[in-house]
Structure formats: structure tokens, C-alpha cells
Amino acid sequence: MNALPALPDSPGAYRWFYADVTAGEYSAVFIFMVGSLFSPRYSARVKRGALPLEHCAVNFALYHRGVSRRWVLSEYPQASVLRQGRELRIGRSRLEYAPDGTVRMEVDERCAPLGKAVRARLVLEPQVPAAEELQLVPGLPHFWRALAPRAKARLDVLSEDVSVEGIGYHDGNHGAELLGARLPRWHWARVHGPEETVVDYHLPDGVAPLRVTAGVLGTKSERRPLLSEARPTSLTGWGLRVPAQLYSGNTVVGTPRLLESSPFYARVEARRDGLDVMGEVADFRRFHSPFIRWMAHFRTRVERAA
What we know:
With 306 residues, the chain is mainly beta. The strands form four sheets. Strands 1, 2, 3, 4, 5, 6, 7, 8, 9, 10, 11, 12 and 24 form a 13-stranded mixed β-sheet that branches. A seven-stranded antiparallel β-sheet has the order 16-15-14-13-23-22-21. Strands 17-18 form a two-stranded antiparallel ribbon. Strand 8 and strand 9 (117-126) form a beta hairpin. The longest helix has 7 residues, at 290-296. It contains three helices and 24 strands. This is Carotenoid 1,2-hydratase.
């Protein structure tokens, strides 16, 4: 993909662009959001006609040996599309799709809510084709596409004097209604192995999971049969149910480390024997409760238009 898709323009709609990188002792996540799923303001105002472009956000997180080093979540009332549709600009941060297929994400923000300046850059060189776009739940307007399931990655966090290379992953989600309205939750994980990357998307209410497999034989998308037995789960300190183990196929990679934990969202990671798993658990209906929306304000910086 060398150009941005159309941005959403109706109340409750959203589109975001996600990327992560694993590089030695470091891992990092970049997300550019139009209609931010982390925004308590968007959640509260949708019924009054709030538009996704009024609630854009940039999220960046840096981890070292599984411990959070930096967290950025900055919300802006607008975004811009530049360079003949190849660049998304939110505040001072930007996402660019180059004509040669390279993906660049640059973050120039401050830690939430009142922290130090952060400058970070991720460059992805895709090594496999993009997957086809998949509808998460039949009949519901929510879609996911693995844009660069496996990529050569370079991470530079200029404000932390970090410069490392590793394996990257990039995808995008979009939908025409607020998450939590009819799609209550999901969890997903991507597994980088020595030669192949596998991404599994687990959905609620008996919906068969999705899988993308990417490697030397290309990229394959499929809807998998439901597991005959549910895999074990555990509760976080917030009472959010997360996988008790992270898997590569049927192989246990390890007990997930909680990179981020909140009442409605968790980011998890496990590594073992050349396998690296990172994933997310989200309960959108929890997020829309007034108390949790109030708590979310303390993890966010609200910025003026750039």
C-alpha cells in the first residue's frame, strides 16, 4: 500500500494504523487513530454527533525487557492528509507510505499526562505481501487488514538514545460504528518466528477466529474453526480476562507479561526460543462506562490543533 485509505467521516466511525517492533531487549508500539478508541470524549459525545476527525490520537509505548519506559497518548481535534494522500499528520507526528512500500512513523509528543518530550521513529520495509481485508464478524461493519505482517524494522527513540533493528508488524482497523455498540470485545496476537509470522484474531460469541500466515510462501488469510476446548484465561488486577498462556499454534510460548493493564485494555508479550508474541485484549463495553471513561483522562494529553 502506497497511499492512505479514505478517513472516516460519520459519528462513531474509526480508522487506526498500528505497528509494533521487537528488537533485542526492546519492543515498541505506534498507533495513529482517527476516531480514537482510547478517547473518553469521543465515547461520551458520539450520541450528540461527534465526528472521528474531531478525536484523533497518537499512541506510542516503549518497553525494555518487558517493562514500560515511555507512554504517549495525545488527542487532537483534527488530522491532515498530505503528499498526494501518502501522509497522515496528527499534531507534530506523522505516518507516511512511501512509493517504494516503506512505512514510516514519526512521533513528536510528550508523555501522558504531564511527562517529558518523546521523539521516536519507526521505519518498516515489508518482507511479505499485505493480507486481504477481512470482516471481523459477519454482518457487522468492522474490518481488519494486516498491511505488513512481517517487515524489517528500525526503531530510533531519539529522546532515549535508543537505535535498534528487528522485526516489525503493521496493520489497520476501521469500522462504521462505535466499538462496543455491537462488537463487545476481542483479543488478538501476532507471533514472529524465525521464518514465518502468524496473526490470530479471536472474536466473541462463538465467531470463528481469523488467521493470517506470512512467510516465504506468501501471505494467507483464513477463518479458522472454533477450538473444541476453550484455552485457559486469568484475571488481571483490574478484573479483565486475558489469556493464561500465549501460543504459537499449539506450542506454549509462555505466560504473558502485562506490558499495559487497565480496566478495559491489556497489552501482552511473551518470548521463548526464537518466538516472539505480542497482542492486545480489549473490552469496549467496559470502556464506555462513565467511571472508566473518567479514569482514561489520566492517561491522555488533550492537545490543541497543530
